[in-house]
Amino acid sequence: MAAVPEPDEPGKRKGSCTSLRLSYWKPFKLLGILDVENIPCARDSILYGSLGSVVAGFGHFLLTSRIRRSCDVGVGGFILVTLGCWFHCRYNYAKQKIQQRITRQGMKNKLLYEGTHLDPERKQNSRNSSN
After folding, report:
1. CB-neighbour burial class of residue 27 (10 A; exposed 0-12, middle 13-18, buried 19+)
2. Is the pLDDT of residue 23 over 60?
3. Which of 22, 104, 107, 123 has the largest count of CB atoms under 10 Å?
4. In this structure, is residue 10 part of a structural domain?
5. pLDDT digits (tens, 9 = 90+) for 54-79
């Protein structure tokens, strides 16, 4: 008999297809070390790298008809496109995280200082009303 997920387990909704699928399938790890499912940007980088590999290798083969060199160009294309996508995506991800942190801190300060003498909006409103 197959193991049925317990209703008390967090993250698993009753009756959803994903909860059953996740309980039976192991997470995909590339080369045993890169958890593609949980690392941001890993999935897209690998997919774009694979596409870059096929395009570079096949394009080189069509131009030169040299099989071994085309495979080498394909591997090089995979490495270049994967690293390029990885660094671009991670840069944008880090930038987004910094913006989220700044916004979260601003919202926290807004809640903390709202209505007090330290409220920046209150100071601006009092300056505008005195003019």
Report:
1. exposed
2. no
3. 22
4. no
5. 999 999 999 999 999 999 999 999 99
User: Which of 26-35, 36-45, 47-56 is predicted with the least confidence, judged by mean pLDDT?
Assistant: 26-35
Which range, of 10-14, 35-39, 119-123, averages the lowest pLDDT?
10-14
Contact indicator for 92, 44 with CB cutoff of 8 Å: no
Range of the domain at 105: 40-114
Closest CA to 57 of 69, 47, 49: 69
Number of domains into which the chain is organized: 1
Judge contact between 52 and 77, C-beta under 8 A: yes
Q: Which of 21, 23, 18 is nearest to 6 (CA)?
A: 23
Q: Is 29 helix (H, G, I), strand (E, B) or coil?
A: strand
Within-domain flag for 31:
no
Dist. CA 56–CA 70, nearest whole Å? 8
Q: If DSSP states are collapsed to H, E and C, what string results for 52-96?
A: HHHHHHHHHHHHHCCHHHHHHHHHHHHHHHHHHHHHHHHHHHHHH
